[in-house]
């Protein structure tokens, strides 16, 4: 029995630490965005209508919970950053097409849990994948290209061994108070873009997103997105009004550009960012 209790405690500690490592952007009393698992979640509540026949009250409460969940999910989605300049709510206001897209995506939510309270109230948890929103990134200025942009090689080959094969890129922005976005960018110290939507394959971006996010560097190393031998660099500072873009050193930018000449981890969106 003691061994079982110890084992259960270890499992609880492990799963708890993994959950804490995930980057979750919380909207109080509504839901939030799990940027590590790449899903948007919300909770809806419904109460039975006493004026309905007893046999129909539970179904009515479930329907009311779904309606609340839909409203809460839309609220979470509107607060998401598309890029360093724009929220999804801003994009919806400026584009009828994007507004229609967002409404359609949110209405197509999936119910992941239903809880029946002793009071007769119903709670439902719903979610939609972040990947459903990446196509609208292509409607932004400089959005997703039809084909990946070629990265130009650099002359200085001293910073990168020609025998080094990187499986992905991890940019450590911990401590900089950077924020997640659907389409962040990475710049060097001179303001030249090193990574962004212009460097990715459209199909990859829509399938897995431009970047992945996490709070723990060691956990990110083993993420299937970059696992193997990821190149790890430290960001210098954040940039942009929404604090979603990153600035790295010129030397690190050179290493990335060289690696991108012969490797396709940028095109395949094998990039992760560590946030606080």
**Main structural class:** alpha/beta
**Can you tell me the overall shape?**
elongated
Total separate domains: 2
**Helical amount:** 25-40%
Distinct helical segment count: 7
Q: Give the strand order, joined by hyphens, for the main sheet.
A: 1-2-3-5-4
Uncertain ranges? 4-20, 147-161
Give the N-to-C terminal Cα separation.
39 Å
Could you tell me the strand content as a percent range? 15-25%
Summarize the main sheet: 5 strands, antiparallel
**Radius of gyration from CA coordinates:** 22 Å
Q: Mean pLDDT, rounded to whole units?
A: 86
H/E series: HEEEHHHEEEEEHEHEEEHE
Number of DSSP E strands: 13
Question: Would you summarize the structure shown here?
Answer:
Helices cover 32% and strands 21% of the residues.
What brief labels describe this structure?
276 residues; 5-stranded antiparallel β-sheet; elongated; 7 helices; 32% helix; single chain; alpha/beta; 4-stranded parallel β-sheet; 2 domains
Write the layout of secondary structure elements.
Elements: H1 2-21, E1 24-27, E2 31-34, E3 39-46, H2 54-78, H3 88-94, H4 96-107, E4 110-116, E5 122-129, E6 169-172, E7 186-187, E8 193-195, H5 202-208, E9 212-214, H6 217-221, E10 231-234, E11 237-239, E12 245-247, H7 250-262, E13 271-274
Parallel strand pairs: 6-10, 6-13, 7-12, 9-13
Antiparallel strand pairs: 1-2, 2-3, 3-5, 4-5, 7-8, 11-12
Helix pairs in contact: 2-4, 3-4
């Amino acid at each position: 029995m003691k061994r079982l209790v110890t084992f259960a405690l270890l499992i609880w500690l492990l799963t708890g630490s993994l959950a804490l490592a995930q980057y979750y952007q919380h909207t109080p009393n509504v839901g939030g965005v799990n940027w590590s698992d790449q899903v948007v979640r919300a909770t809806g509540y419904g109460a039975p209508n006493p004026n309905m026949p007893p046999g129909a009250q539970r179904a009515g409460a479930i329907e009311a919970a779904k309606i609340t969940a839909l409203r809460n999910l839309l609220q979470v989605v509107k607060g998401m950053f598309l890029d360093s300049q724009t929220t999804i709510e801003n994009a919806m206001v400026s584009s009828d097409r994007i507004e229609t897209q967002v409404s359609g995506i949110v209405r197509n939510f999936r119910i992941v849990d239903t809880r029946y309270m002793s009071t007769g109230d119903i709670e439902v948890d719903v979610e939609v994948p972040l990947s459903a929103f990446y196509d609208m990134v292509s409607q932004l200025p400089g959005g997703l290209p039809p084909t990946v942009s070629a990265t130009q090689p650099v002359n200085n080959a001293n910073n990168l061994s020609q025998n080094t094969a990187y499986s992905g890129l991890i940019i450590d922005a911990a401590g900089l108070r950077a924020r997640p976005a659907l389409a962040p960018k990475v710049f060097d110290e001179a303001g030249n873009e090193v990574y962004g939507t212009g460097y990715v394959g459209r199909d990859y971006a829509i399938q897995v997103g431009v970047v992945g996010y996490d709070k723990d560097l060691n956990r990110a190393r083993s993420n299937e997105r970059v696992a193997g031998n990821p190149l790890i660099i430290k960001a210098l500072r954040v940039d942009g009004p929404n604090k979603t873009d990153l600035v790295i050193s010129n030397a690190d930018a050179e290493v990335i550009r060289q690696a991108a000449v012969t490797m396709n981890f940028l095109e395949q969106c094998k990039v992760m960012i560590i946030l606080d």
